Amino acid sequence: MSVFPQDFLWGAATAAYQVEGAHDADGKGLSNWDVYSHLPGTTYMGTNGDVAADHYNRFKEDVALMAELGMKSYRFSVSWPRIFPTGRGEVNEAGVKFYSDLIDELLKHGIEPMLTMYHWDLPQALQDEIGGWESREIVDAFEGYARLLYERFSDRVKLWATFNETIVFTAFGYLTGMHPPGVKDPKRAIQACHHVFISHARAVETFRKMGVQGQIGFVNVMQPNDPISDKPEDVKACEFAEGCFTHWFFDPVLKGEYPAELLAMSQAAFGVPAFAPGDAELLKNNICDFIGLNYYKREMIAANLDVDGFAMNTSGQKGSGQELGFKGLFKMVRNPNGRYTDWDWEIYPEGLTDAIMRINKRYGKVPIYITENGLGAKDPIVNGEVLDQPRIDYLRDHIQATAEAIKLGADVRGYYPWSFIDLLSWLNGYQKQYGFVYVDHENNLARKKKLSFGWYQDVIRTNGEKL
Ligand code: BG6
């Protein structure tokens, strides 16, 4: 007997900028990524999403492949500037039609849509006109965008997520400067992040006021932090890292408040987050229905008196990453006994059980969807076949880790590997592949099923019994 419930949603995920292409088609406005990725030195070898996997033009072919795979659900994101070219005001009906057609095509094949409203592609006009996430005005703009999505799609979409991985687009966008708008300032990062939580709460409030039938959640990445040793200074550094990386991002949407100690520290050090009247109540009254959990790796943490900086391996040359850290607080270090990908991400399936159970422990039995999980690799091609056995091994182990958590009592309702199809990795180009479907960039973006495609088909068919 499978431990997965009968109605478990076996799915796969993508995001608009990474898969759609057609960056200026049919009235779409420019996003921050359309602009940023064209600036010299910002992405791996200057790669961008102008064409990506051309999913915008080939979505019917792609949905047919999803149906062949047996997917029960598909997680995708909507590109805000495709709907509102300048972020607010006039609606681009052609953009609405694209998603409407995609949703119809999914439903025609019995595939349940899970819609993410924001997976990092902000209308550039909102960056230019109001200052993006740093501006309080963004809350109204986001609420207007969310309202339009509910009006047009809630007759067919039942699973909604507001934001994808707030830690990444706020920390990379405003703290390390690796994502747009390329700012490096903790104070600005923290206030931008606050506006995301408030925008989320407002979108949840509107969802409920409008009586939308469905569930609304928030997607966070979680990399459980473990201390590199049992020395008190490493354990303490690790607790602090867990607070910053995890509690800061889960508490506001699941408890309706920031972790008190960290909030006090941040306000004392930087004067932010600054609350507007009503913010605390808004957060408190709009706890979300589920959490989307993205899991790839864990982090080993050590006390840190020396490392100050953030330089990631974006080339896929194993070992080229450097130690990352915030001096005086903590650093992320390599596990001497760990297994690592070519991008220096630790492969640690037990960490997924751990991540799920840490959520359970802190927030109770909240419904969880694993909204991303996968192996980024340069897949071997042998006689024209894409033999991605390492991906199969990775996913199998993580599905087992999910089953473990269900056995321990967690309410996990779906599993969406990243990604359905090969797509653009924001900073790592097209060579870091995650998909079940290969995209041949030398041959007009032709689709080809990988070895993992047949394997996942069996997993779904047997509800996770045949791994
Ligand atoms: C998550 C994002 O952070 O991880 C995805 O939600 C992203 O958009 C994925 O592609 C994998 O990260 P990367 O850097 O390997 O592409």
Automatic annotation (TrEMBL):
Its EC number is 3.2.1.21. Substrate binds at residues 18, 119, 164, 296, 418. It is an enzyme of class 3 (hydrolase). Keywords: Carbohydrate metabolism, Cellulose degradation, Glycosidase, Hydrolase, Polysaccharide degradation. One of its GO terms (molecular function) is beta-glucosidase activity. It comes from the Bacteria. Gene3D superfamilies: Glycosidases. It catalyses: Hydrolysis of terminal, non-reducing beta-D-glucosyl residues with release of beta-D-glucose. InterPro entries: GH, GH_1_N_CS, Glyco_hydro_1, Glyco_hydro_1_AS, Glyco_hydro_1_beta-glucosidase. One of its GO terms (biological process) is cellulose catabolic process. The active site is at residues 165, 372. Coiled coil: none annotated. One of its GO terms (cellular component) is cytosol. NCBIfam families: BGL. Belongs to the glycosyl hydrolase 1 family. PANTHER family: GLYCOSYL HYDROLASE, LP05116P. This is Beta-glucosidase.
